[in-house]
Amino acid sequence: MSTPSPQAIAPGLSRRLAAFVRNSQWRDVPEPVREHALRALYNGFGTALGGSSDQAILRLAASLAPFSAGEAATVIGHDTRRDAPTAAFLNAASMNVFDFDDTHQGTIIHPTAPVAPVVLALAEAQPVSGTALLHAFVLGVEVTCRIGNAISPGHYNRGWHITSTCGIFGATAAAAKLLDLSQEEILWAFGNASAQASGLVETLGFMAKSVGVGTAARGGLLAALMAQGGVEGPPMPLEGPRGFLKVLCDAPQPELIERGLGSDWENLRNMFKPYPCGVVLNPVIDACLKLRRKPDFSADLVSDITVRGCPLLKARADRPDVTTGREAQVSAQHAVAVALLRGTSGAADFSDAAVSDPDVKALRAKVRPIETDEAIPVEAAYVSVHCSDGSRFEMSEQAATGSPARPMTDAALSEKFAALAHYGCPAINAGALAERLWALRDASDVGSIMALARPGA
Amino acid sequence: MSTPSPQAIAPGLSRRLAAFVRNSQWRDVPEPVREHALRALYNGFGTALGGSSDQAILRLAASLAPFSAGEAATVIGHDTRRDAPTAAFLNAASMNVFDFDDTHQGTIIHPTAPVAPVVLALAEAQPVSGTALLHAFVLGVEVTCRIGNAISPGHYNRGWHITSTCGIFGATAAAAKLLDLSQEEILWAFGNASAQASGLVETLGFMAKSVGVGTAARGGLLAALMAQGGVEGPPMPLEGPRGFLKVLCDAPQPELIERGLGSDWENLRNMFKPYPCGVVLNPVIDACLKLRRKPDFSADLVSDITVRGCPLLKARADRPDVTTGREAQVSAQHAVAVALLRGTSGAADFSDAAVSDPDVKALRAKVRPIETDEAIPVEAAYVSVHCSDGSRFEMSEQAATGSPARPMTDAALSEKFAALAHYGCPAINAGALAERLWALRDASDVGSIMALARPGA
């Protein structure tokens, strides 16, 4: 039963956000935003290649295969194409399955995963230029992160998987832009998205997480297509008294959605991860990799290891006993062990096989419970190693790779892409694909690039 | 990032609920529950026929058509079949589009809409007997309503469309039972459902509501199929610290999910609606229909109308100005006008056409703002009519049709079914279909009945 109330917050917010998406022109998007969005798309494509052969993705792909009509869209890293909604689902899940995709500062949203797969799928249904695709992608990321800002930090803290819950609105906005929907249709599309917004933190660490992320991409695409087909939504899906913001957050700040909209771009606060694990581990891994490069260090001699960092590091990642690669992604003990033992911190180092490697297990057991200091920022960490010969090594990291103070370079992103392609999908020509993606802004038909992401094509 | 916490409420609840679904035998379901479930299924089938040609359903069907693989499952009232998830989506939306489907006492969940379409779709993929189908349906309704009990009334009051949010778990349970999933797989399926649970009250009164209800059915079916395909979920999707109950409710009572489970059946608290509008209007309409049957009453002479009822009646349905059939469903003024003018209160009386009928408009304008009395229960109402010739009519209803004290009879359900079929889908043989549905428990292959719900078959 409908129960409207006059106490709406900021009436018209949803409508104005729809107008922003409708009216935005490519010339309105500053050059640094365009460049950064291309990096995000490139990075996300790489993490999708890396995740494409993960068991979660293979099982989801098999489960959805009987319900895909035709082969219009590429599933990154797979031979067989699927229909656009199914491909969007699977590519979003692949991009995010290792949590190795981008992270929006402040909200910890992974904005590319729900948004990029939608524009890529639509680009195989109709010719779409590289700039048109990037423009829609920029708007989708912007909508996702701004809605996230309005409900952070309460929303995630309550237990919402913010990548999925906010991502569906970005996926909707991006699809709506490429489909050239009217302002009213975009508003309806937001309403259709609001009816599907979901995702729980409780599922993280399990394959069910990918169900939420995939549903955000697929649901966003369908929300826009339904609006195009005349499926009408409410006028205030975000700010209404029983709309998204109030229902999914105890103390929303709706005004943050519009503050600086179109001038201060959230796209630029989107960071890329050097390691496939929780961002709190980045400085710890940086310090361990530097320490291992010391000429007189030998992992064989290590007797015990102390890690000191911010309180969040302990809260999220003090996990000595791990049994799966998923769990290892949030285990400081595991991250320290592989970095010191192998000198690497890639997808293979957070696999089930790495977790059960006897040498890794032995070293993991030597990492003491995490020590914390409130004065240490989240980008910093200290590692101290005692050895059986009495020697001692100390190393610290003050600004972790991937942090705002030290973002990943394009060269580092290229290395990450190549490593992920090799890990998840060695059968494709990753070099050729990477080249076409870096040149995306010159492409007249993005769809033609997608064949390079299929091993059999 | 995963952030497990030791403070889980009732650990093992989700697992035990999965065990209940897994271990339940048809012989464990008491005869009154079986009979009542058959009524619910029959009633829901009728409301789906009535809703099948509504604009919302036609537009959703057209939007989803390109993404349906094959024609395995019947869309009730439509010529063309769709794949099982798409048919489940559309049939759930049809059943609920007029809010004319069943209502679970206490939670106001419409439990049949998300659940029945899933078992009906599966029954066309493999031979399913009438009793196997009813058994899965009973379990789906039970799971839906019990999860609803645990989060009522706070969940709905916060703005959650409880039919959608809880319905997906019932859809999952019903599908899991028919697919013969193991206990562990059912637990995973609940996790996959938890990642998709959604639906906002803000969308009620708009087509976007049906997006939420359809998604619940489709998502529940897929949650079970994914679990069958090995997509693993968390161990405590319901009761975990960031699980469904705590995240979607401020003060959940998880113990209500298990209290009386298997002995005190929520299925029996599922009521059927005589009129296609908010249940608070039932006693008002009853009183008006009785009043109109008085030999000396003439609607032409009415000068003003007073309605007195419970506070909820005013809160939900004091709506003198309506412009659409959807709004009219929660307008006491409209319901009174059509009942007094036409002597009917069916789907056609809550259509856009009825809303703009000049005679209805004129009479609607004569209904004063609703008067309330806290002593009046929700099942009762008083109507008082003054006429221009000085005459006055009074009528009250103490136990509305469809209330627990006066449930709809099987004969009344049959009349409702026939009227809805005639309204929404006159081309089918509704009599033959009704007969087969009443005899469902003797059916060896329910799928064969579905052809009768397609005009072209």
From TrEMBL, chains A, B:
<dbReference type="Pfam" id="PF19305">
    <property type="entry name" value="MmgE_PrpD_C"/>
</dbReference>
<dbReference type="InterPro" id="IPR005656">
    <property type="entry name" value="MmgE_PrpD"/>
</dbReference>
<feature type="domain" description="MmgE/PrpD N-terminal">
    <location>
        <begin position="15"/>
        <end position="255"/>
    </location>
</feature>
<feature type="domain" description="MmgE/PrpD C-terminal">
    <location>
        <begin position="275"/>
        <end position="426"/>
    </location>
</feature>
<dbReference type="InterPro" id="IPR045336">
    <property type="entry name" value="MmgE_PrpD_N"/>
</dbReference>
<dbReference type="InterPro" id="IPR042188">
    <property type="entry name" value="MmgE/PrpD_sf_2"/>
</dbReference>
<dbReference type="Pfam" id="PF03972">
    <property type="entry name" value="MmgE_PrpD_N"/>
</dbReference>
<dbReference type="InterPro" id="IPR042183">
    <property type="entry name" value="MmgE/PrpD_sf_1"/>
</dbReference>
<protein>
    <submittedName>
        <fullName>MmgE/PrpD family protein</fullName>
    </submittedName>
</protein>
<dbReference type="InterPro" id="IPR045337">
    <property type="entry name" value="MmgE_PrpD_C"/>
</dbReference>
<comment type="similarity">
    <text>Belongs to the PrpD family.</text>
</comment>
<dbReference type="InterPro" id="IPR036148">
    <property type="entry name" value="MmgE/PrpD_sf"/>
</dbReference>
